[in-house]
Amino acid sequence: MRILLVEDESKTADYLRKGLGESGYMVSVARDGNDGRHLIEEEEFDLIVLDVMLPGLDGWQLLKIVRQRGATPVLFLTARDAVEDRVKGLELGADDYLVKPFSYAELLARVRTLLRRGPPRELDTLQVADLHLDLLRRKVSRNGERILLTNKEFALLHLLLSRQGEALSRSFIASQVWQMNFDSDTNVVDVAIRRLRAKVDDPWPVKLIHTLRGTGYMLEAPP
C-alpha cells in the first residue's frame, strides 16, 4: 500500500514516515503543496494524508485536485481544530479529519480503516477536458464559463461523464435518465442529446459528445 504524506513540519513528517514504514506501508513525503500536487498528478497512491496549512498550495486546494482525478481516500491531519474547518474538509470530499496533536495509534487505526473500505463513493465532481460538473452544487462549466442546464440535461450529462469513454445505447440512457423503457422508435434521447450538445459542445471547437452509429452515444475527450 502506497501512502502520500503532505506535511511541512519536518519532525512530524519524519516521525510518520518512520512509523508508517515500520507498519508495512510505502510512504512518499511532500514538504509543501506544490510538491504534493506534482506527486498527486504523476503517481498513484492508496491513501493521501494532508495538512491544511502548507507553503504553496494549501490542503483545501490539493483536495480539490485529488477529487478531480478520482476517489483516493484522503485523511486530513492538521492543527485546524475549529468545527467549521472539519465541516469544510468533509464537504470538500475528505474521508476523515484528525486534529494535531494526535495519537499515532489512533492515526494508524484510521489509516487502516480507510485502506480496507469497500468501493469508493461516487465522486462529487466529474471532469473531462475543460468540462466540469459539480454534483453537490449542481453546477456545470466549460473553460470556466457557467452552463445552465435543465434537470434532465444535468442528469444526462452526469450519466455521460460518469461513464466517459463507454458506448451507451439509447435504451440504456433512457432507462437511466427517465427511469423507464422507451420504444425503439422514440427519439427522445436524440432530442435530449441535441439540446445538451447545443449548450456544452457547440460553442467550443473541441467536441466531447460523440454519436456512435447504430449504437448510441459516448462522451470522450479527443486524443
TrEMBL record:
> Which Gene3D superfamilies does the entry link to?
3.40.50.2300, 6.10.250.690, Winged helix-like DNA-binding domain superfamily/Winged helix DNA-binding domain
Q: Report the SUPFAM superfamilies cross-referenced here.
A: CheY-like
> SMART domains of this UniProt entry?
REC (SM00448), Trans_reg_C (SM00862)
Instruction: Output the Gene Ontology cellular-component terms.
Output: cytosol; protein-DNA complex
TM helices/strands, residue ranges: none
Q: Which CDD domains match?
A: REC_OmpR_CusR-like, trans_reg_C
* One Pfam family here: Trans_reg_C
Going by the UniProt record, its keywords in alphabetical order are: Cadmium, DNA-binding, Phosphoprotein, Transcription, Transcription regulation, Two-component regulatory system
* Positions where 4-aspartylphosphate occurs in the chain: 51
Q: Whereabouts does the entry annotate DNA binding, in residue ranges?
A: 123-221
Superkingdom: Bacteria
Instruction: For this entry, list what GO says about its biological process.
Output: regulation of DNA-templated transcription
Task: State if Ribosomal protein is listed as a keyword.
Answer: no
Domain Response regulatory: from-to ranges? 2-115
This one is known as: Response regulator
